Amino acid sequence: MKSQTLQRKETVLLKIQDLQQDRHCLQQAGEIIRAGGLVALPTETVYGLGANALDPQAVTNIFLAKGRPQDNPLIIHLEDASQAQQYARDIPDVYYELCRRFSPGPLTVILPKKEIIPKETSGGLDTVAIRIPKHPVAREIIRFSGVPVAAPSANLSGSPSPTTASHCIHDLWGRVDAIVDAGECSVGLESTVISLAGERPILLRPGAVTPQMLREVLPDLLVHHAVTDKLEAGERADSPGMKYKHYAPQAQITVLDADSKEFVEYVNRHAHEGVFALCFEEDVLGLKVPCLSLGKDEIDQARNLFAALRELDNRGAKEVYARCPSKEGVGLAVYNRLIRAAAYHELSPQDTGKKEDGRF
């Protein structure tokens, strides 16, 4: 495959406040996608960078716009679960049961793909990842496009995922054809990804649909080790968000597995210029360094994480200590994103050994 370069685009901003009054903007976005263009569009999880999933060149342009490695598979977004039959084969009955319970919504299911899905969309794999988004703007744009929409997060690869249109503008203005502004995303983290393409169902990326919820339908669900750890050298990435360092601000993040008292004491002992804390609401009053609170509970933490990671750059943070969230429920999804943003730098305040880089 020849090396391709990204051509500068005249990006248009399409603001959606009312589905009926702004129908022309939704239609314009759908037409751009159908014609092979790129559109940053809102979903309930994060903003996605949408293109025609059946058009190899349009999908290649997603990778170029994001600076994303092309062996990273994409998720296709559909209007209705029944449309999966057009793009996937050997669909088990449990897929439809999952859709009845969790779709439209923040759940992606990986299935064996049909030949209609190009290798550019599947990352060279023989599977396809399918999601039916809940956000009404996303659904209308998909409907107007008339095609399955491949839509990874609408950010430069490696940077925090976008939860507002302003994040997309910062990363992708001049790199895409349109950005659709429909306000802030309600969930704030990318969808849960599970695979039904193997012998047993397996969770590849946690999200708002938690392992506990999934096990009500899939009691034999496995959790991939890469949910909380790195892939092994040479190990295949079967889902977006598994293989590369993701979500990272410019500052070096260290995740502290500590309760509130331990976290505050540790951060205060290591305070110096450029140090920030990424904390929970209960930690704020005790900290002696600049801090950003993710909120009171795991739902707040999920919704606020990516915006907070971007704000660290805006405020010039050089080193960040982040309090480790719960590894249960939605907290597992927050931890999964945070540990990748930290490039797997994690410790407990009781740790006395030196890390390889000599910082701890």
Would you write up a description of this structure?
- The chain contains ten helices and 16 strands.
- By secondary structure, it is α/β, with parallel strands linked by helices.
- Strands 1-8-2-3-7-4-6-5-9-10-11 form an eleven-stranded mixed β-sheet, with helices on both faces. Strands 14-13-15-12-16 form a five-stranded parallel β-sheet, with helices on both faces.
- The longest helix has 17 residues, at 298-314.
Tell me the strand order in the biggest sheet.
Answer: 1-8-2-3-7-4-6-5-9-10-11
Structural class designation: alpha/beta
What percentage of the residues does DSSP assign to strands (E)?
15-25%
The overall pLDDT average reads 92
Overall body shape? globular
Total helical segments: 10
Q: Give the distance, in angstroms, between the N- and C-terminal Cα atoms.
A: 44 Å
Radius of gyration: 20 Å
Q: Please tally the β strands and state the result.
A: 16
- Uncertain segments are 352-360
Helix content: 25-40%
Largest sheet: 11 strands, mixed
SSE order, one letter for each helix or strand: EHEEHEHEHEHEHEEEHEEHEEHEHE
